[in-house]
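Second opinion, please. Pick holes in both lines of this record:
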Amino acid sequence: QVRLAESGGGLVQAGGSLRLSCAASGPISTIKTMAWYRQTPGNERELVASITSSGGINYEESVKGRFTISRNNAKDTLYLQMNNLKPEDTAVYYCNADLFWPLKDSWGQGTQVTVSL
């Protein structure tokens, strides 16, 4: 099973930047798509950005132009560069690996991002 570990969260002022990382270990070749999700208390987890094994990228509308998702060449580390952060970006951010059937998705433990005014 693929294991994921996020890092890079923290507290930042509005307008600032953070870079999240997600290290994947295990059978990396079983990963179809990797993504970042975020969740706030009382709300469902929402997709922030995703990248397929062939490099196709998708962003949630509110982060377009501010966030950039990328992977390293070995495809075992996922990044999320977050610029011009806003208070509404405050959430726990989770790394996700969508695996080829019939394997089940893998999730990281989450990392807190807090944006203050």
